[in-house]
Amino acid sequence: MSAATASAAVRAPAARPRTARWLLRLHRPALVVWTALVILGAALLLWLAGPLTDAAAEGWRQYNACKWSEKCPYAQDAILRYKDVYNYLTLSLAALPFLVAAWAGAALTGRELESGTARLAWTQGITPVRWLVTRLALPAAAVAAGTSLLVFLHHRAWSAADGRVDTAKNWYDFWTFHTNGPTTVALALAALAAGALTGLALGRALPALAVSVVLTAGVWGLAQWLMPHLWPAVTRVTSLEHGYAAPYSGVDVAKGLAIRGGGHIPEPECYAATTEGCARIFRERGAVGWFHAYHPASHYWPLQLTTSAFLLALAALFTLAAFRVLRRLSGSLRAGKGATA
Amino acid sequence: MSDTALGATGLGKRFGRRGGWALRDCGFRLPAGRVCAVVGPNGAGKSTLLALAAGLLPPTEGRLTVLGTTPAAARARVGYVAQDKPLYPQLTVAETLRMGADLNPERWDAETAGRIVAAGPLDPKARIRSLSGGQRTRVALALALGKRPELLLLDEPMADLDPLARHELMGTLMAEAAQHGTTIVMSSHVVAELEDSCDHLLLVGDGRVRLAGEIDDLLAAHLRVSGPAEKAGLDAHTVVEDRVTGRQRTALIRPAGPLGDDWRAAEPTLEELVLAHLRNPQAPALTTAPAATEESAA
Q1: What is the CATH number of the domain that holds B10?
Q2: How far from chain centre, in Å, is Cα A64?
Q3: What rounded mean pLDDT belongs to chain B?
Q4: What is the tally of structural domains in chain A?
Q5: What is the pLDDT of residues B230-276, one digit of tens each?
Q6: Does pLDDT of A41 surpass 90?
């Protein structure tokens, strides 16, 4: 036996291949960029929650104190700056899952298959399944940690302005709803799995980048469309003179007229000048009241959690599909024990 | 430990459901410890065969055993260098070898890998993306040999190398094979490149195995004969190729019995043997080593 064999024996304790270390080394630039984005986002959200919100709240206090008097000095700049920074940060946070999808599709799996380095990895002492597990688990941890921190800080910034800044977004605002809670984290994880899947399935970086972003957009749209239906809505029927039960207070599911016999119809056009006039016309057509199915603020967490669960289920589905594609690509995932059987 | 490094029965691979067969109906047996040349024209299925053996592709039909087990189970004991020598371009040479050590903790031979790279000579701090094709080949071979494989699969390993490096690396490979009993399978479409180093031949043409066996046995099974153009009498033998130029008739045959006196006969060169079979796809295949049938029964 040569000296080399002896030195290999000395190294025996480290018998497990160190896949994580090399994943981190190969994707070090991505990790640095992601960390920088999270730190920058966190710093901006803290700035928004503190000084910017305080300044905007003070501006609104001044404005409301004027009571419509003609000359009213108030800090309009602070109000506008708060609004701009809030909107840009919310949109940026909502865009993060798409960044994850693009990276996962292009760099994590697509480029490796295109350049053949995936095959290089599979012919080292690691199985393809271990290769993919590491490639999904570590980025998933980083993505979950980063987006969780950011949505937490976003929710904190939103809460700080709620009731103090008159232009602060409602809880059910399209973008605010998602960036305030775990649905964005779940979407980012689904995007990671979608990217890994398309990279494996297409085997080329650029098409995988495009397709994974489109796929993530589809997932997001589907989740958005399903969200109000994933939890039973509150339905209120009010008299025709009263109007809708809770306009502008939550996520609307359905609105319209309740008619005799228990049916619902969409609100018809009414050209009468007064509410009473319209009520009379509606009553002549058989309406008995307004009905309004909606999610009040108390449904915030049920909606967040059911939508997140739906997105995580899709992420699991994509992951499963990625392993199936991997098996088709590489023959066998594990170093099976059955020799020539 | 099996004495068969590679054994195939009815092996076939088709890409896509409607795609053509890259490999069809392949049966051969490669004993352990041999240096085997996989020869064939471009697109003959050489790379497919090597990728199947490396456990990187599932076969569409048939069976392939590698080191007495399935290709996937043998992966840890097999070294593989793909035709385009893929490496991570962002790593340095030293990092690439360290990755080999980390990903093959039970088998890694740092000394061998380091020696191959140092003979380049390659700067350990150089990034892979800055290397020439031949230098990348050297790193890829170092990575594959550092794993101390029992079976080394090399797809066109020498294509990018200058004659000096080719000679030196071929020497390293042969020394490795001799010292550790490594089975080496290397593909090429240049026969001359492999003639001196290999003792076993697998000729692949149009997705099928045309010749398989020890090179000496294969050569001994054939005769290059020549005689007058009008002369007949080869019908008793298997005629691989039969050509008439002017008044001269030359043929490559597998003799089934004694030849007539008028024929001048000589053992063909490896190149003649290979070219004659590639030019005449209708010639029946010949396998001088038994197919791996007794293995599967065991």
Answers
A1: 3.40.50.300
A2: 36
A3: 86
A4: 2
A5: 777 777 788 888 888 888 888 888 888 777 777 888 889 888 898 88
A6: yes
ipTM for the whole complex = 0.84
Q: Given an 8 Å threshold on Cβ–Cβ distance, is B56 in contact with A123?
A: yes
By Cβ distance, the residue of B56, B75, B296 closest to A335 is: B75
Q: Which of residues 258-297 of B touch A (CB under 8 A)?
A: 295-296
Does residue A324 lie within any of the structural domains?
Answer: yes
- Domain extent at residue B271: 219-284
pTM of the model: 0.86
Which long-range CB contacts under 8 A does A116-122 form with residues at least 24 apart? A116/B82, A116/B84, A116/B86, A117/B86, A117/B87, A117/B88, A119/B51, A119/B54, A119/B56, A119/B80, A119/B82, A119/B86, A120/B82, A120/B86, A120/B87, A120/B88, A120/B143, A121/B103, A122/A330, A122/B55, A122/B56, A122/B75
Pair (A308, A294) in one structural domain: no
The answer to whether position A11 is within a domain reads no
The domain total for chain B is 2
CA closest to B13 among chain A residues: A331
B64: helix, coil or strand? Answer: strand
Assign B21 a pLDDT band (cuts: 50, 70, 90). Answer: confident
- Alpha-carbon gap, residue A192 to A322, rounded angstroms: 11
Query: Is the previous residue joined to B71 through a cis bond, with omega within 30 degrees of 0?
Result: no
Q: Let me know whether B198 and B141 are in one domain.
A: yes
Q: Which domain holds residue A75?
A: 19-227+300-330
H or E element at residue B111: helix B110-118
Does residue B256 lie within any of the structural domains?
A: yes
**Domain end call among B216, B244, B263:** B216
Q: Which of 53-92 (B) contact A at CB < 8 A?
A: 54-59, 65, 68-73, 75-76, 78-80, 82, 84, 86-91
Q: Are residues B175 and B267 in the same domain?
A: no
Phi, psi of A196 (to 5 degrees): -60, -40
Q: How far apart are CA A46 and CA B247, in angstroms?
A: 96
> Which of residues B167, B183, B216 is at a domain's end?
B216
Are both B49 and B175 inside the same structural domain?
Answer: yes
Alpha-carbon separation of residue B127 from A49, B90, B98, B136 (angstroms): 45, 6, 14, 10
Does any domain span residue A4?
Answer: no
Do B241 and B110 sit in the same domain of this protein? no
Share of chain A above pLDDT 70, in %: 91
Does A142 share its domain with A247?
no
Q: In this structure, is residue A7 part of a structural domain? A: no
Tokens of A143: 């993505």
Span B61-96, pLDDT tens digits: 899 999 988 888 888 889 999 988 999 999 999 999
For residues B12-37, average pLDDT: 86
